[in-house]
């Protein structure tokens, strides 16, 4: 079993829609949770990170972590064609800095 | 500020040959990481340097892989001899602070696409 599970998609939504991306994880020791965005032929770019459970908002992006159900979510409001990319969730233990990634979800925003 | 750079961007070699990948982290970043993505799989951790010391090399697949970071600046990852299953995209990342200090972000390079034929 993978430590982080993520639906690879692909996911296509119309411009302006709310996008919901999700991951589940199995290791209860994970404390830090990240969302990366990766454009084609580029490296992953950190969008947001949260510590433990709760919500974090940054512009059109909201990250949620529910440690009780081991569930990570990223919401994108008012989606734009420029949001089309692969979104990767990642997590790590406190003090253990190696990142454990999900497989990534390929998202396309249709104009 | 220049980001993480990697060289080459793409390398095609034959099975049994040697390849060396290079990573230049962001200036001043003590932490340097190597990751790999094999086709269809998730990005996986290979190893972590703090300055010139290997902090964690638990992800290195076998002794055909050798990573160095002499002087605590750039790093090289050598694969010798290369096998077909080594094909994939090798990412390098760097960070300034660790989780212990509460300030954390790993900046990734564009990756080196390695094809072993």
Explain briefly what this protein structure is.
The complex is a heterodimer of chains A (111) and B (117). Chain A is mostly beta strands and 111 residues long. Helices cover 0% and strands 58% of the residues of chain A.
Map the helices and strands:
The complex is a heterodimer of chains A (111) and B (117).
Chain A: E1 4-6, E2 11-14, E3 19-25, E4 30-38, E5 45-51, E6 54-58, E7 61-66, E8 71-76, E9 85-93, E10 100-101, E11 105-110
Parallel strand pairs in A: 2-11
Antiparallel strand pairs in A: 1-3, 3-8, 4-5, 4-9, 6-7, 7-8, 9-10, 9-11
Chain B: E1 5-7, E2 10-13, E3 19-24, E4 31-37, E5 43-50, E6 53-56, E7 65-68, E8 75-79, E9 88-95, E10 107-108, E11 112-116
Parallel strand pairs in B: 2-11
Antiparallel strand pairs in B: 1-3, 3-8, 4-5, 4-9, 5-6, 7-8, 9-10, 9-11
Description of the molecule:
The complex is a heterodimer of chains A (111) and B (117). Chain A has 111 residues and is mostly beta strands. Helix content of chain A is 0%, strand content 58%. Chain A has strands at 4-6, 11-14, 19-25, 30-38, 45-51, 54-58, 61-66, 71-76, 85-93, 100-101, 105-110. The mean pLDDT of chain A is 93. In chain B, strands 2, 4, 5, 6, 9, 10 and 11 form a seven-stranded mixed beta sheet that branches. In chain B, strand 5 and strand 6 form a beta hairpin. Chains A and B meet through strand 5, strand 9 and strand 10 of A and strand 4, strand 5, strand 9 and strand 10 of B.
Structural class of chain B: mainly beta
Helix and strand element order of chain A: EEEEEEEEEEE
Number of strands of chain A: 11
Low-confidence stretches of chain A: none
Q: Give helix and strand order of chain B, one letter per element, not per position.
A: EEEEEEEEEEE
Global structural class of chain A = mainly beta
Report Rg of chain A.
Answer: 13 Å
Major sheet description of chain B? 7 strands, mixed
Mind summarizing the main beta sheet of chain A?
Answer: 6 strands, mixed
Summarize model confidence as the mean pLDDT of chain A.
Answer: 93
């Amino acid at each position: 079993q993978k430590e982080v599970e993520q639906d690879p998609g692909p996911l296509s939504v119309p411009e302006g829609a709310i996008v919901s991306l999700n991951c589940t994880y199995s290791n209860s020791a994970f404390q830090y949770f990240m969302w990366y965005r990766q454009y084609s032929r580029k490296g992953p770019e950190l969008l947001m990170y949260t510590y433990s459970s709760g919500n974090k908002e940054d512009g059109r992006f909201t990250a949620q972590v529910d440690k009780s159900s081991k569930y990570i979510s990223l919401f994108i409001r008012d989606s734009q064609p420029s949001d089309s990319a692969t979104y990767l969730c990642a997590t790590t233990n406190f003090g253990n800095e190696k990142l454990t990634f999900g497989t990534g979800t390929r998202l396309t925003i249709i104009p | 500020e220049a980001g993480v750079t990697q060289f080459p961007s793409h390398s095609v070699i034959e099975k049994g040959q040697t390849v060396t990948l290079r990573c230049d982290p962001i200036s001043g970043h003590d932490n340097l990481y190597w990751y790999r993505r094999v086709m269809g799989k998730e990005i996986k951790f290979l190893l972590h340097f703090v300055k010139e010391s290997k902090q964690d090399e638990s992800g290195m697949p076998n002794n055909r892989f050798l990573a160095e970071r002499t002087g605590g600046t750039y790093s090289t990852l050598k694969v010798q001899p290369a096998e077909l299953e080594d094909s994939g995209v090798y990412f390098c990342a760097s960070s300034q602070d660790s989780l212990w200090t509460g300030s954390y972000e790993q900046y990734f390079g564009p990756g080196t696409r390695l094809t072993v034929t």
